[in-house]
Amino acid sequence: MQRQYRERVSMRNPVHFCALGFGSGLIPVMPGTFGSAAAVPLLAATIAAPSWIFISLTILFAFIGIYFCGRTADDMQVHDHGSIVWDEIAGMFCTFLFVPLTPLHLLAGFVLFRLFDILKPWPIIVVDKRLHGGVGIMLDDVLAGLMACLSLHAILILWPF
């Protein structure tokens, strides 16, 4: 992260800490990928949880992410800086809605989410270009997660593994 932006955030601030993916967004290369990887231990912690808890967490992560990401972007004075990766964490949770969390499913979902997040097909690209603030930061990754989720479900129906 460029020095002037780094000076505007503090890992002691819980909002910044979360928005920066517990520090994973500060990794200088591929912060979105590392932010997505930061979701894996959180996902693993929900393996035995009932579906309603997983759904509730997914919704909670998406909504609090609007605040975390918007506030941190405001503090950094940059819209959607690459180090803000809470949106990737929430997007990863969206990816695994109603998907059994096995190691192979985690790998497949991770790859699908990263593809949709990087390539930004329609309508993700429209949201990414037109919406700003916390909602804009979050919504493109939530959409990428939902598209990855649908793709993962289709793959699991066609080729169960």
From TrEMBL:
Top-rank EC class of the record's enzyme:
hydrolase
Known EC number(s)? 3.1.3.27
Question: CDD domains from the xrefs?
Answer: PgpA
Q: Which InterPro entries match?
A: PgpA, PgpA-like_sf, YutG/PgpA
**Entry keyword Magnesium:** yes
Q: What does it catalyze? A: a 1,2-diacyl-sn-glycero-3-phospho-(1'-sn-glycero-3'-phosphate) + H2O = a 1,2-diacyl-sn-glycero-3-phospho-(1'-sn-glycerol) + phosphate
Q: Name one GO cellular component term.
A: plasma membrane
Q: Name one Pfam family in it.
A: PgpA
TM annotation in the entry = 49-69, 90-116, 136-159
Q: List GO molecular-function terms, semicolon-separated.
A: metal ion binding; phosphatidylglycerophosphatase activity
Keyword Cell inner membrane included in the entry's annotation: yes
Keywords on this record? Cell inner membrane, Cell membrane, Hydrolase, Lipid degradation, Lipid metabolism, Magnesium, Membrane, Metal-binding, Phospholipid degradation, Phospholipid metabolism, Transmembrane, Transmembrane helix
Q: List the cofactors.
A: Mg(2+)
Swiss-Prot/TrEMBL GO biological process terms: phosphatidylglycerol biosynthetic process; phospholipid catabolic process
Give its localization. Answer: Cell inner membrane
Topological type in the membrane:
Multi-pass membrane protein
Involved pathway(s): Phospholipid metabolism; phosphatidylglycerol biosynthesis; phosphatidylglycerol from CDP-diacylglycerol: step 2/2
Residue ranges constituting the YutG/PgpA domain according to the UniProt record: 18-155
Main localisation, per the record? membrane
Q: What does this protein do?
A: Lipid phosphatase which dephosphorylates phosphatidylglycerophosphate (PGP) to phosphatidylglycerol (PG).
Q: What is this protein called?
A: Phosphatidylglycerophosphatase A
